[in-house]
Amino acid sequence: MAEKRRVSGLGRGLSALLEEAANPPVASSTRLPIADIVANPNQPRRQFTDDSMAELVVSVKAHGVLQPILVRDIAGGRYEIVAGERRWRAAQAAGLHEIPALVKSLDDRTAFEFALVENIQRSDLNAMEEARGYSRLIADFGHTQAALGAILGKSRSHVANLLRLLDLPVEVQTMVETNQLSMGHARALAGAADPAALAQQVIDRGLSVRATEKLAAGRKAAAPRHALAPSAPADPNIDALELQLSEQIGMPVALQMGGEAGSGSLIVRFDSLDQLDWLCARLGQG
């Protein structure tokens, strides 16, 4: 029988573990040889920037590792990091031989789930790492977007917007991971026509997030009308009106004229709930 996925959040056990890792009782931690500790191959955080690591190494040299890392016991008297890899790396670079640690007995699923949530809560992940973390929590652990938002103290729309970044081309995702583009830039490019070309323009021209949003909206507005209404006949007057409306609201628009004189339909395409919320608010202003 297939294993049932949990859909009710982290559960009291993992929630308690998060709290203990953030505020560990002094008596519960121990000191372990750094040489006996190995990194977690499934660690969700992939980018360890030189500047931030250098600052942490300086701090560790001056004050030591103040907060224990979280590890689990594995075969051969070794320990695998669940949370705190940056502190472990900094301790190595600082020349320390031991590090304070909390040792917990965790299965693979719980260890990975904790590592994801702990990194996300600490804002230690870049936007793409965070998006992949959300995707794994949803796919592997059955969490909904709303449940994740409640667990992490973030809005459901924040979770949804980050997940949309996974639809970006690989080269654009890499630009986000290497800090060439911010999450705001990536969000503006998600759903745009040819986001890779637009992303390169953003970098080359040093555009702000707001300018990127306008650039992406303009590219969407320039999309051919038949992309929204393939059966509509070409009409220069309708094309001009569609373009005018698209430029005003920043979303692709299609006009479909009916059989009777003066009747028809107006179609507006939105790419996210945020865009729909904005459009509803705009219309509500009268």
Descriptive notes:
By secondary structure, the protein is of the alpha/beta class. The chain has three domains: 11-120, Conserved hypothetical protein from pyrococcus furiosus pfu- 392566-001, ParB domain (Alpha-Beta Complex); 174-221; 225-284, no CATH class. Helices cover 51% and strands 12% of the residues. The chain has helices at residues 11-22, 50-63, 85-93, 108-121, 127-141, 145-152, 156-164, 170-177, 183-189, 195-205, 209-221, 236-249, 273-284, and strands at residues 30-33, 37-38, 69-74, 78-83, 98-104, 253-257, 264-268. Strands 1-5-3-4-2 form a five-stranded mixed sheet. Strands 6-7 form a two-stranded antiparallel sheet. The longest helix is centred in the middle third of the chain and has 15 residues, at 127-141. The chain is elongated.
How would you briefly describe this protein structure?
It is built from 13 helices and 7 strands. The protein is of the alpha/beta class and 286 residues long.
